[in-house]
Write a structure and sequence with these properties.
about 200 residues; alpha/beta; 6-stranded mixed sheet; about 15% strand; binds uracil; uracil DNA N-glycosylase activity; hydrolase
Length: about 200
């Protein structure tokens, strides 16, 4: 973890961070994944979405949220007047865990310095945590996502800047439980209002 922190913390740009991550051999997930999924969208965006880990389609394409979950995310973005290419998208873990298993606590800790630095360098005004693992990783909150969602939390960057985080339901969960979409819709509207408020 110390090596990950050093590699991530000293990256001066997002391109450099991507190179450092690609060269980082400390996390075993790298060796079973086909591709690294660093980000998609616009790194200069005011809004950054963070999911858990790539799935099968993401692993094949090397981009986050390009499978069914991503298609739903695109529609959710459109519903609040945003387009995918105008937001920044990443995952807490950049490599697909084999068979989509849950990342282990060690894997999560090894990847954490990279996503933290990625947030710091992208410097969005607002973060949206897609699902419980992302919400937990970004805010340290221990409650389940059904309790957390809809309530603003905070993410502190390594340099101490505080960024508002909206935890919401993961698109993959919404595909299984479409009746819950109304809650995500509310959360997305809250994000839109926050962005307007922040100017
Ligand atoms: N689920 C995630 O959390 N991230 C992706 O990139 C795809 C599915």
């Amino acid at each position: 973890v110390a090596i990950a922190r050093e590699a991530a913390g000293t990256a001066a740009t997002l391109d450099e961070l991507r190179e450092r991550l690609a060269a980082f051999d400390g996390c075993n997930l790298k060796f079973t994944a086909k591709n690294m999924c660093f980000s998609d969208g616009d790194p200069l965006s005011d809004i950054m979405f963070i999911g858990e880990a790539p799935g099968r389609d993401e692993d094949i394409e090397g981009l986050p949220f390009v499978g069914r979950s991503g298609q739903l995310l695109n529609r959710m973005l459109a519903a609040i007047g945003l387009e995918r290419q105008n937001v920044y998208i990443a995952n807490t873990i950049p490599w697909r865990p084999p068979g989509n298993r849950t990342p282990t606590p060690l894997e999560t800790e090894l990847c954490r310095p990279f996503i933290e630095r990625q947030i710091e360098l992208a410097d969005p005004k607002v973060l949206v945590a897609l699902g419980g693992p992302a919400a937990k990783a970004l805010t340290g909150a221990q409650e389940g996502i059904l309790r957390l969602r809809g309530n603003w939390k905070a993410h502190s960057t390594p340099s101490g800047k505080v960024i508002p985080v909206m935890p919401t339901l993961h698109p993959a969960y919404l595909l299984r439980s479409p009746a819950q979409k109304r809650f995500a819709w509310r959360d997305f509207l809250a994000v839109k209002m926050k962005l307007r408020e922040l100017g």
